[in-house]
Amino acid sequence: MTSAVGPSSHHFTGTDIILLVIVVILIFATGYLAMSETAITRTSKVKALTLVEEKRRGANTLLRLVERIDRVLPVVLFALEVCTLVAATLVGVIAAHAFGGLGVILAIVFEIVVIFIFAELAPKTWAVQHPDRSALATAPVIRLLLAFKPLVWVTQALIAITNAILPGKGNRGGPYTSDEMLRAMADEAAEEEVIEHEERTLIHSIIDFGDTVVREVMVPRTDMVAVESYAHISDVIDIVIAAGFSRIPVYSQGIDDIVGIVFLKDLMREEREGNRDGDVSTVMREARFTPESKRVSELMREMQAGKFHMAIVVDEFGGTAGLVTLEDLIEELVGEITDEYDIEEVPPEKLDDGTLVVNARMPVDEVNELLPDSDLPEGEDWDTVGGLLYSVLGHVPSEGETAVVGRHRLAAERVQGRRIGRVRITTLPSQNGGDKRRGSGSKAVESGGAGDEARS
After folding, report:
1. What is the pLDDT of residues 58-111, one digit of tens each?
2. Of the candidates 372, 444, 453, 387, which has an alpha carbon nearest to the alpha carbon of residue 420?
3. Same-domain pairing of 232 and 195
4. What sign for the dihedral angle of Cα 147, 149, 150, 152?
5. Strand partners, 445
């Protein structure tokens, strides 16, 4: 009985052989679809356009697929899952029929080892290592897959059922790439030496450019060089040459009443024509104005369209907050541009004890980049470290007066009139009792120079 049942129960039949051939075909299909999924998801539209420009075979098909990736990917994934599940099921049936109970264990091992390695891991690894070749090779087949309408209809139906059952259908119109992702991509490309360090810095500057407002890049009114509208042309020429500028504002009743812009070329032309003692108002040109809250990217486009290089920055009350030039905007992208007449600012100085001495006009975010684990706050009322110190103190500091902000002590190292020239920033030790008591982000004022009262 046993010998009769045993041999007849566990052996391959013609049907098993057919099923085994189907399994092999499905495993190859699974590997191909797995490679297709990885290849198409790792190909950006920019990369596809580059391949089209290089006239690579299949590039146009690949570009069309990438442009509608949200429709292509679900179909590929559905076909991949169908092939995987059917292959695994058939392997289980064949193994159980051929080896009985032991066949189930053998089928599981086969599915884990063979299907995972040869149909999932190996194709996807190859696609990662050869993204262009794999994307171009699989694009025509994916196009044929999409042409099989029943598969597309079933996929869409399953997606519709999923959206109806599960809450939150996702943000279909949301951005797929954020500023942080772009910065990370640039950093990674620089680390892999795909781009130069200077190119990485430029990419970061371009990304930040769209978020920068005029107030952050303008020359403040205290640093403006301006002349009265009734000043003589010869006197204004001396002022402009001494300042090293090619154009300066002209005011009438005061610095908050800017009435025009005067150009050195116009002044010199008038002087050569013998009009040395004429009023500068006779040669000044129209002044352009811009709010301090305008984004620099918008202002640059206006300057390009209007063909002007200087704009007067006004605050919310209509007063003069400062001025901004086209050069100031370009410097936000490419860094400082200095010429023979520019007075170079003293760079930040890092002392041996970790103390940092910076220009008071240095933006707070740049200071935070220079200091390890810095927590200096960025507020709406200030952009610079000098403005932060003003805000904390609530008055014009005397030279040497200090304030504690978070884990740092800020000292007004140089004060000229009502302006802070340089700020000394000292990181307080973590065991400092006052630092622990105040906590991160708190502010306190300490007594500064002789005669100052302690404020808290």
Report:
1. 788 888 888 788 788 888 888 888 888 888 888 778 877 777 777 778 877 877
2. 387
3. no
4. positive
5. 403
